[in-house]
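RESIDUES AND SHAPES:
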Amino acid sequence: APWNLNPSAYVTRYHKQCGAKTSDVYRWPTCMNHWSLTFKKKTWYDWIWDVSYTPHGPVHVWVGGMGGDCADMDISSLIDEGYLTDDDEDTVKNFMFVALKNMWRAEMIEMPKSCSSDASSECTIKCKKEHEQFLKEWESQLSGVMGFSIDDWSNATLYELADDVLCDHAFWPGDHLEAASPVEASFWPIHPTLDRL
C-alpha cells in the first residue's frame, strides 16, 4: 500500500500492534462468527458488509501487526495532563494502522516513494499540518476511530498528539495487514474459507 514504509524486502509479521497486545481489541474469529455470518445474514449487502470485520479481519491484525518506531511512542505528557490514560496508549497503538490509512487517503500525510533498509530521517511520515483540513481529519481518527472524547482538547493538544504518534515517525503494517496481504502465505487459507461460506 502507498502508506506502507516497510523497508524490508521480505514478508514481515509483527503479531502485535505497535508493541501492544491485539487480543484486547481484536478477538480471534470463532466458528460461531462464521456460523452467524452464514446463517443469520438475510441479504448479500449485510453479508458483504460484515464479512470484512469479525469473521476474518482480526486474523489480518494478529498476523500482520504493526512495526517500526510506533512501539516506542511516548504519550506520557498527555497522560500526565489528564487527556489520556495508560489504557488509551494501547488503544492508540491498536488503531494506528487505521489512522495511517485514513490520513493518507484524506491526503493529510505524505509518504516517501520508497524506503531502503538504511534510510532514516527522510523515510518518515510527513504530516500536512499547514492544511486547514488536517486537524479535522485527525480529530475524526481520535474520536470516530479510537473513541476518545476530545471536545475539550485545544488545537495545541491535538497537534501534540499528532507529533507524538504520527508526524515524522516511521512505522508500518506487516504484510498481512495491508494491500500486499496475498504475498503472505497465511492469507490463502483465510480468504478461500470465507469464499466457501
